[in-house]
Amino acid sequence: MPEIELSAGTIDYEDTGGDGPVVVLAHGLGFDESVWSEVVSDLRPDFRVLVPVLPIGSHRRPMRPDADLSAHGIASLLAEFMDCLDLRDVTLVQNDTGTAQLLVGVRDHRIARLVLTSCEALDNYPPGFQGRTLHRASKIPGGLFLLLQSFRFPALARMQTSLGGMAKKRLPNELIARWYAPLLSSRDIRRDFAKFCRSADPDCYLKAAANLPSFTRPALVAWGAEDRMMPPATGRRLAELLPNARYVEIPDARTLVQFDNPVGLTAELRRFLKEHPLPEES
Question: How many helices (H) and strands (E) does the chain have?
């Protein structure tokens, strides 16, 4: 994979290349670019698709010890990634973590179209049982290390109170092993992960919501219809704050919409992009 040096450290990223309109896919906590693989495969014939491996748990390269890895810090790294590659008129697609919202009205000049799929928003942060458990464990010395040991056993990881609650489809052993190997094998990766978990501010996305009405560019809020961690009611409220947004629920999907129903999600993405072409696409 190509790599890029950012202020926090070096990150890997996937880039399909080409001259098509730019789509950046942002993953959530404890995932890497592979969670978007089927969506990338669908979009790559017509779009340049990039997936940065954000330093929130499944990254393979530790960040600098002084790096800001709070939600705001990760949002800044996402903006820096787009700046460093000089990506323009980006369609930014976010899942699980809500960091893309933190760029609105602050550092959104490269975003032409915004897509939010089942993610942290408003008063749902830390989200659900899983998010609250991670946050509490991060406050206890050794708590996250002990909690993460459960991911050595796929059957435990697939429990509804754990990773399994984020997906309707059965999570394959190889994906669970891939996503959690860095956390289980590297003290520095755990340090980065703990930074994010410990820094969770319950008012983070409520404060960010004040800027959402200023985003008048096209937006799509695509929520997993069966999401338990990120309730669809949150998605509907989020869409109401964005002046030029459409809300849609993706059937047969929970939080990991792109894993549960990639066909349904990419169909909505393509519809959205066709309905809101950039000047050069018209």
Answer: 11, 8
